[in-house]
Amino acid sequence: MVKVGVAGASGYAGGEILRLLLAHPQVEIGTLTAGSNAGTRLGEIAPHLHALADRELAETTAAAFEGHDVVFLALPHGASDALARDLSESVLVIDCGADHRLTDGEAWTAFYGTPHAGSWPYGMPELLSHGGAKQRTQLVEARRVAVPGCYPTAVSLGLAPALEAGLVEVDDVVVVAASGTSGAGKSLKPHLLGAEVMGSMSPYGVGGGHRHTPEIEQNLSLAAGEPVSVSFTPTLAPMPRGILATCTARVRSGADVAQVRTAYEKAYGTEQFVTLLPEGQWPATSSVIGSNHVQLQVAYDEHAGRVVVVAAVDNLTKGTAGAAVQSMNIALGLDESAGLTGAGVAP
């Protein structure tokens, strides 16, 4: 059995990791820690985790995780690196925060305002790089993994095949995506109150200001083999969880709809957690809730000369915790799907 600890177990991401680990046949759940909730029973904060309800949350220190094989870090951005440095190099550390995602230190400083902690192998197994290799190979036997952001998961998997195949222009990529409120975490924020969210949608991070923008560009540039610029506009939707991303890019001269669909079939035809839907069927957030699954559909807008890709993902599962568990499985040589499901919850 693999002994696993979770730092930040009282938050949405930490709770979702625990939900998945409870179904993992090769995992023993060890120490659970928190910040301000240290000393509290987990059942008071996450009553849906019945099997762990009587666990008391410990303070988040490296000493709390002695004797563990794997430690998941579900901590606020900027808080992971200090703890990770104090953990043994033999321990598999999986960071669900942003600290180790970006390879460009200047981009990190510009968007996060703190010194760059460096980059770790990136936990998006299905992500294509130019030439056709996938990120999965970088995770084998890794001992440090950076889990992708939720928006970058939907957008990167949505656009990478078209860019890798050279079918769209790299300087005309536009993304508009809607996310549920859990993407903002559990902290109390006035704009996330029920009275503010119910029955209303609103944009945020407009004009290139969202922190996931450089991560999206990093991933798409890897796929294209050259720099990609993205106009990204996120919106807040009145739902607890889920992301629906509409991604468009101008088609390069000579490309046609058959080539575009073929690129996606080639990229994801054997992937168990990414599905290109049959033509005419469109992704919906309700179809992926609770699953480690991405639904995609691609179309060619001939009038506008653009490829349109729509991606649906659960921001807490495949967008965070599912990717973390999937990366753990690959790093440890376990069945990649252990503890995970591709089936959503409906209705």
TrEMBL record:
**EC category:** oxidoreductase
User: What InterPro entries does this protein's entry cite?
Assistant: AGPR (IPR050085), AGPR_AS (IPR023013), AGPR_dimerisation_dom (IPR058924), AGPR_type-1 (IPR000706), NAD(P)-bd_dom_sf (IPR036291), Semialdehyde_DH_NAD-bd (IPR000534)
Organism, per UniProt?
Luteipulveratus halotolerans
The record places the active site at 150
**Where in the numbering of this chain does the Semialdehyde dehydrogenase NAD-binding domain appear?**
3-135
Q: Which gene encodes it?
A: argC
Q: Which domain of life is it from?
A: Bacteria
Would I find Amino-acid biosynthesis among this entry's keywords?
yes
| Name of protein | N-acetyl-gamma-glutamyl-phosphate reductase
UniProt keyword list: Amino-acid biosynthesis, Arginine biosynthesis, Cytoplasm, NADP, Oxidoreductase
Question: What are its E.C. numbers?
Answer: 1.2.1.38
